[in-house]
Amino acid sequence: MAQGMHYLQIPGPSPVPERIQRAIDHQVIDHRSPTFQKLGKEILEAIKEPFGTRQPVVIFPASGTGAWEAAIANTLSAGDRVLMVETGQFAVLWSQIAKRWGLQVDLLETDWRHGVNPAEIEGRLAEDKSHAIKAVMVVHNETATSCATDIAAVRKAMDAAHHPALLMIDSVSALASMPVEQDAWGVDVVVSGSQKGMMMPPGLAFTGISQKALAASKTNNLPRSYWDWAEMLKFNENGFFPYTPAINLLYGLKEALAMLREEGLENVFARHQRLAAATRAAVQAWGLELQCADPKAYSPVLTAVRMPAGFDADAFRKVTLEHFNISLGMGLGRVLGKVFRIGHLGDINELTLMAALSGVEMGLKIGEVPYKAGGVLAAMDVLTGESKKLRLSA
Predict the structure, then answer these.
(1) Predicted TM-score of the model (pTM)
(2) What is the secondary structure of 222-266 as a DSSP string?
(3) What is the pLDDT of residues 43-73, one digit of tens each?
């Protein structure tokens, strides 16, 4: 039987802080009561800050996949064309949902080692003279590959093409770990979930909705009931929900939002960048290869590491779990068995990361994976250097 704390270093669900656990451990209340109404109003206003919006954010009892489906069902019509980019497994899954809803998907392929190329988006939209493409749908932070996309650059490309398509982004793993600026970037739909940077258990799906997206929801013809934005927004105006909400998770969400405010979002983002840089330094010192091949696209949320030829990533993950009680993320889709993923998001600090990297380095040795010693020391050099900078600037 494993001893000590389990290190959950997958890129979501992320560990839930004790403060949030205690908040969730709350007696269930009447979801039609004034007490709940106060909670609902507070949360629905506060959730806008990490989205970078003053527009509505709706909350469904669901995973991020539910928010994907709601985005489609509320804005598009059967037979509509959408433009998507295959940056990794989560982009693939979203495209599959779109096809099941009867949409025509134009899928731009990548090598799964880069983010979205805005120039390709601009080129494809410029060719669409009839404006048949109704939405551009991209993954903000591709959790399968640890490649992030510059969403502001995607919007700039769409504007340069003078194309009216909606811009929808999957920020499931980006929210509260890296900047999301829905209004400033001109994003029409932002979908996310509770179980990553928000430090919550799975179970809540968030959707930021622009006025343009709301207008589209009044004219599209896809059916919806549970996922209906209009019904949700009607009840949200008074702090309520059209059906029984996940009451205890909402108490946890209130606490999560308080924790983010206390630290300050800019500090949260800087912490994630600092820990990500230390992780990449460790990987490079080990002589292993990053899955993300573009330094401009490095994710602050997780780091995907390619295994040397002839070595299985899942066999390595089994070694680290059995010997050191640490869970690392598995490879997904095209990179199944070829990469392992180190999550460094949510409720994590320098000591948490150093423990995780120590487990990885010891696992490399025990698993007889070809590597160079010193990755942990390289990460320490990054973190102590950054700490010195922060101390001198204080």
Answers:
(1) 0.95
(2) ---STT-HHHHHHHHTTT--SS---HHHHHHHHHHHHHHHHH-HH
(3) 999 999 999 999 999 999 999 999 999 999 9
